Amino acid sequence: MREFLVELTTAVPDGTDPAEVDGRRAAEAVRARELAAQGRLFRLWRPVGELRSIGVWRAEDEPELREKVLGSLPLWPWMTAVITPLESHPNDPGRTV
Q1: So where are the chain's domains?
Q2: Which CATH number applies to 1-12+42-86?
Q3: Confidence band for 10, pLDDT divided at 50, 70 and 90
């Protein structure tokens, strides 16, 4: 599997019922745990004071990442994603050859 740096920003559409937002957010937490258990979501951060997330995700390729992994997130219809494919750096201190 390849690794991808993914920046996700969620924008809830104006007029959305708060109960729907709460339900999707709760389902999002459940789905994130499932994806982590599957090895698809490796790490996830939220920049201090911001409503976006930055994470390392794993998939066979970018189409799989978009369609099957990120596309399975309940908040995905409200998200924009910046996806950067990653490769190992020869000087990575955590690299195992």
Answers
A1: 1-12+42-86
A2: 3.30.70.1060
A3: very high
Task: Give the C-alpha separation, 2 to 17, whole Å.
Answer: 37
Q: What residue type is assigned to position 40 of the chain?
A: R
Which alpha helices (DSSP H) does 1-97 contain, by range? Answer: 18-37, 62-64
Phi, psi of 68 (to 5 degrees): -100, -30
- The model carries a pTM of 0.90
d(CA 75, CA 71): 9
> What is the side-by-side strand order in the sheet with 41-45?
41-45, 52-59, 2-10, 79-86
User: pLDDT (tens digit, 9 = 90+) per residue, 11-70?
Assistant: 999 999 999 999 999 999 999 999 999 999 999 999 999 889 999 999 999 999 999 999
